[in-house]
Amino acid sequence: MSAVAMGAGENLRVLSPGRLVATTLLAAVVALVICLAICQTAHAHATLTGTVPADGAVLQAPPDAVILSFNEAATPIVASLVLPGGNISELQQFSTSGATISIALPDDLANGSYALSWRAVSEDGHPISGTTFFVVGAPSQGAAPEIGASQTGVAESLWIARLLLFIGLFFGVGGAVFRLLADEIPSKAASASHWTMLAGFAAAPAILCLQGLDLSGAGLSAALDARTWSLGLNSPYGATVLLAVFSLVCGLAALHVRKNWQASLAGGLALLGIGFSISASGHASAADPQWVTRSALFVHVTTIAWWVGALFPLVLLLRQDRRTAAPPLIRFSRAIPFAIVPLVASGVILAIVQLGPPGPAWWSAYGQILAAKLSLLVVLFGIASWNRWVLTAPAATGEVRALQHMRRGIFAEIVIILAVLGLVSAWRFTPPPRALAVDAPSATEIMLTDGTLHAMLTLLPARVGSVDVAISIRTGEGELVTPKSVKLSLEPGAGQIAPLTQMAEPLEDGNWHIEDITIPLAGSWLTQLEVRVSDFQLVKLNGEIDIAP
Questions:
Q1: Is 18 exposed, middle or buried (0-12, 13-18, 19+ CB in 10 A)?
Q2: 3-class SS string, 301-363
């Protein structure tokens, strides 16, 4: 036995492949649980930054339209208006301009309370929905009914379908691309690639349907509606699915043609198809600068597919004669470092774009999935390095112990990659922090005083809509006052509506706060703070504050 093989044999004595495989399976199960938990609650991937009229606004006359503003471009899908009597009017007239959507309202709106329920699709292909309220004249009696269809089972089904498509692309097409390294693919590996690609074909139309259901907000019962399929096909994911089908077709051709040059051509096109498919939609497709993010995603995906596709054929080749297995094993071993470097570099670029510099964003749901993925990749790279630097040389010479350990290591790699694909599929339901990044509302402070008491009011934000108010009351000497009660009254300077009055709640630190008071109009508001210092002393502090639109 060669010196290299003997050295490898010494290293192998300290390894425990059984424990390695058991740990790998446990990590895969944990990843699966994370994915299913995330699918239970899907998140929108673009953020509503404002509405005109503002949510909860009281208007003298009915508006012609409701304008929705987002932090990125969005396209309307459907909108419904709940009328004061409880009837629902479907709205059809939309217009878009960049990151705003205008929804035209009926001309004959009577006085009362209205609820506008809307649904749109963001630039990265993910659904956005919400409801905004406004009042014309005086509010209606009773609460407006909730509207919206149940989507039970859609998110889970979409995750499964995406996972099957990924398996078909990375293991099926990637396995066919292995013909670039070997003249022949083991029959069992060819059969596995064939069937996984067929699973990918089956998942493709399912994804279009489920994507349409997800965008429309409908349940599985609407799967046969023509509008469901139209929404799915016309969404950004439509391009992803069509390019994935192209890649699968080329993969089948690479697997079954006889001439090596034909297999190489079809395999190369299939590999490119995977990169173009996945980079055509999703988070990175909408992140700026897109030429950087899409290029990084393309490199990331194609290098993964090339690596992953070679694993199962290698496992089976290692069971065959050494003279057959050694050449492709050595070629793969020499080429893998040139795939790992761009794989890691592109992954770092994508993580920085989506999460930004290290900070609280890295603890978001998106960051937690990334952390789980990176944890699995650390184990994966460790196994790959072990195979590359310790086992390849003795395995190529036919050393039995090295071959056994390499097969087990590659099996562990396959399990880890399946778990990674499950995590990546769950990103469909989790927005990256950059997609949630909107301008933080600014706080405005106003001092109210009568010479003996000073009250500092902090409004966050000082604009139309929901506002939080923090109140600190002190004496002229700066000592904190703890009154029995505090009441805030706000009245528009023009007197369009009656004053808004709300009691403040005490905090443990001696200050007071009012949570979620709705200010419906912009302009100057007269402010009065009633401070009940004792049973016999009531102090009223007056001032004025400007509310932005």
A1: exposed
A2: HHHHHHHHHHHHHHHHHCCCCHHHHHHHHHHHHHHHHHHHHHHHHHHHHHHHHHHCCCCHHHH
- Contact predicate 465/191, CB 8 Å: no
Fill in the amino acid letter for 369. Answer: I
Pairwise CA distance, residues 210 & 208, whole Å: 6
Q: How far apart are CA 534 and CA 87, in angstroms?
A: 50
C-alpha closest to that of 56 among 119, 131, 120, 145: 131
pLDDT value of residue 2: 36
Give the CA distances from residue 200 to residues 220, 262, 301, 514, in Å, rounded to whole numbers and listed in that order: 21, 23, 16, 54
310 exposed, middle or buried (CB, 10 Å; 0-12, 13-18, 19+)?
Answer: buried
Cβ 110 vs Cβ 140: under 8 Å: no
Q: Tokens for 492?
A: 């528009």
Task: Measure the CA–CA gap between 144 and 388, rounded to whole angstroms.
Answer: 65
Backbone angles phi, psi at 49, to 5 degrees: -100, -10
Cα 50 to the chain's mean position, in Å?
21
What's the CA gap between 171 and 300, in Å, rounded? 16
Do 396 and 439 form a contact (C-beta atoms < 8 A)? Answer: no
Radius of gyration of the chain (CA): 31
pLDDT of residue 133: 80
* Cα 250 versus chain centre, distance: 30
Pick left, alpha or beta for residue 114 (phi over 0 → left; psi -120 to 50 → alpha; otherwise beta). Answer: beta
Q: Quote the DSSP letter at residue 430.
A: S
**Interval 432-490: pLDDT, tens:** 665 554 444 556 778 888 777 888 888 877 777 778 888 888 876 667 888 888 898 88
Say which residues have a Cβ less than 8 Å from residue 298's Cβ, sequence separation at least 6.
275, 276, 279
Q: Which residues contact 231 (CB under 8 A, 6 or more apart)?
A: 77, 121, 211, 212, 215, 216
CA-wise closest residue to 127 among 290, 289, 237: 237
> CA 215, 216, 221: angle at the middle one, nearest 5?
115
Which regions in the chain score pLDDT beneath 50? 1-44, 143-150, 437-440
Yes or no: say if 463 and 548 are a contact pair by the CB < 8 Å rule.
yes
